[in-house]
Amino acid sequence: MIQSDLDLFGSQPQRLASHTVLLPGFALGEVEALLDALRPVLRAAPFRHMHTPGGLRMAVALTNCGRLGWVSDARGYRYSPTDPVSGQPWPALPPVLLELAGKAARAAGFDDFVPDACLVNHYLPGTRLSLHQDRDEHDFGQPIVSVSLGLPAVFLLGGQQRSDRTQRVPLSHGDVLVWGGEDRLRFHGVLPIKPGVHPRMGERRINLTLRKAG
Ligand code: MD3
Ligand code: FE
């Protein structure tokens, strides 16, 4: 049987764990609008490499938009209303991102998700993100929505303990992943990005994670 052309915009949701849903291609129809919205954000708050509290430079470059932004320095990890580079508030959360996050959360079974923070991660080939938990947010009852753009990645979905076995999940341009509930504190990470050139994004991967941080 030939594939429906609806599949150009993604296949069926895949439940990866009890409260973790992959929405393949969910953002594909809005990539250009997302990139248009990101351009002024990146102009006001360019990607930068932060340092861990232990003084290590992070391989992933990042920035934020929204009322709160995630920062890391010698004082620790936290959400801050201002960009430490510019001293200004982070750029506002673009409406197209807010709406996409709400739609994706609803499609995954989480109603009324209103994020106040978007962490934007930038990966070059070879960049990885080691296994960690997202625990700097105020309310772990709120889900997180992530949007993948550009080069494909393999993310590692672990368990509640760092030592738990991990499943490898391929993430492509336009995929959206939503996780919450009992999966909210699972360990997770990203394997080194394979060399390549994405036809729209070039030699990079950008991941947007929308959160209710405050
Ligand atoms: C969370 N970002 O910014 S998001 C982060 O692709 C972060 O840039 C990654 O982790 C990135 O904190 C991954 C996707 C993801 C996947 C599976 C998870 C996050 C998850 C499972 C449990 C909890
Ligand atoms: Fe994370």
Explain how this protein is built.
- The chain is 13% helix and 31% strand.
- It is globular.
- It starts with 13 loop residues before the first strand and ends with a strand.
- The model has no long low-confidence stretch (mean pLDDT 95).
- It is an alpha+beta fold and 214 residues long.
- The chain has helices at 31-44, 95-107; strands spanning 14-17, 20-23, 61-66, 69-73, 76-80, 117-123, 129-132, 144-150, 153-157, 167-171, 176-179, 188-190, 205-211.
- The protein is built from 2 helices and 13 strands.
- The protein has a 7-stranded antiparallel β-sheet, with helices on one face. Strands 7-12-9-10 form a 4-stranded antiparallel β-sheet, with no helix packed on it. The protein has a two-stranded antiparallel ribbon with strand order 4-5.
- The longest helix is centred in the first third of the chain and has 14 residues, at 31-44.
- Bound molecules: N-(carboxycarbonyl)-S-(naphthalen-2-ylmethyl)-L-cysteine and fe (iii) ion.
- Fe (iii) ion is lined by residues 132, 134, 188.
The largest sheet, given as strand count, sense and whether it forms a barrel, is: 7 strands, antiparallel
Which segments are poorly predicted (pLDDT under 50) over 5 or more consecutive residues? none
CATH topology: Jelly Rolls
Q: Which CATH first-tier class would you pick? A: Mainly Beta
**From the helix content, strand content and strand pairing, which structural class follows?**
alpha+beta
The total beta strand count reads 13
In this entry the ligands are: N-(carboxycarbonyl)-S-(naphthalen-2-ylmethyl)-L-cysteine, fe (iii) ion
Strand fraction equals 25-35%
Order of helices and strands: EEHEEEHEEEEEEEE
